[in-house]
């Protein structure tokens, strides 16, 4: 079975549409829903479905972000302590639980097409069954952007953010935090509540609860 791993971002969207143009055999299209995507991402997925007239299967994690955030470590030196935000120096437990595990479970034993552009080939792995069409076509990020703009399918979320991800991610850039503050006040308030509840705050040297400004820089934290 040939599966397309679709995130709703520039690379995976360009890969999917060009695969369809080239008449690739596609059996399933999968979107691993973290349940923490921005509204524009969900809107884009719906628009893609309408455009290609193919269902995009939404995989859900077994537990929610809150289950893990407010849950306790089960091993290691922090055993018994509340997790709070994923630690910056370690792989994100939410990416593992909401993306990697559901996708790996569903795709096991099948070909999985992954959208990684030619100029990000350092992210490519040699996992069995993984296929990277953009690399094979030598499509860079700019190639993907131009292609999507030409067919009027450029994801609207990129009008606000350079990169996308969970709105509560502690690894997001200061620019992303500024956009979150200015454009999504309800999510910003939720993020501040998580900061209060997390045993180690949001991330070192940043205090969201003190940030009530229109422009966010390193000096403001």
Q: Please give the share of residues in helix.
A: 25-40%
- H-E string: EHEHEHHEEHHHH
* Through-space gap between termini: 49 Å
Instruction: Give the mean pLDDT.
Output: 93
Q: Which strands sit side by side, in order, in the main sheet? A: 3-2-1-4-5
Give a count of the beta strands, DSSP E runs of length 2 or more: 5
Rg (C-alpha, Å): 19 Å
Coarse structural class: alpha/beta
CATH topology of the domain at 2-155: Rossmann fold
Please, how many helices?
A: 8
Structural commentary:
The chain is 38% helix and 8% strand. The protein has 221 residues and is of the alpha/beta class. The chain has a domain at 2-155: 3-Layer(aba) Sandwich (Rossmann fold). Strands 3-2-1-4-5 form a five-stranded parallel sheet, sandwiched between helices. α2 links the parallel β2 and β3 (57-59). α1 packs across α6. The mean pLDDT is 93.
Secondary structure layout:
Elements: E1 2-5, H1 10-21, E2 28-32, H2 39-52, E3 57-59, H3 65-69, H4 93-107, E4 111-114, E5 130-131, H5 133-137, H6 141-150, H7 174-183, H8 185-197
Parallel strand pairs: 1-2, 1-4, 2-3, 4-5
Helix pairs in contact: 1-6
